[in-house]
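Lecture 7 notes: from sequence to structure.
We start with the chain below.
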Amino acid sequence: MLPIILNVIILLMIGLLGLMGSGGLPGGNKDASQAAEQVAAKLAPFAGIIGVVALLWGVWGLIRMLDVFSLISIVPVTVIISLAAVVVLIGLGIILAYPLLAQALAGSGGGKDALDKSLAKVKPLQRPLSLAAVAIAVLVLLMYILAQAGVIL
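Predicted structure tokens for the same chain:
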């Protein structure tokens, strides 16, 4: 039960941080977007740490997914949602952890260049990944409730 709670908390936290950093919800008014950007600026030092945690949690989840792939014929929805959660965690983890990772790799020119290239590819996906993180957190919570009721997805 604890891994499920941690997944939901991390997905919600990183999704909301990503939304704040990208200017809030799509279609929101300008005041809300400016307020979200101001809050994101205040939380920027913590966003890097949360990004590193999400990145490590996503990589760990990817390693654990190797065992879960054998269950795809039994519980396909669960496996697909788990894989989506891992992909979202890794993507948003890279985006949010970029300042800390760039600082750590400042001495090695090749590592920072590779990180800049990967960030350029993933940065435009920050808002969709953030929305997906919140949606997946809700789905994981819903799937947990259904599993407690005896429904297998």
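Points to note: The chain has five helices and no strands. The longest helix spans residues 30-68.
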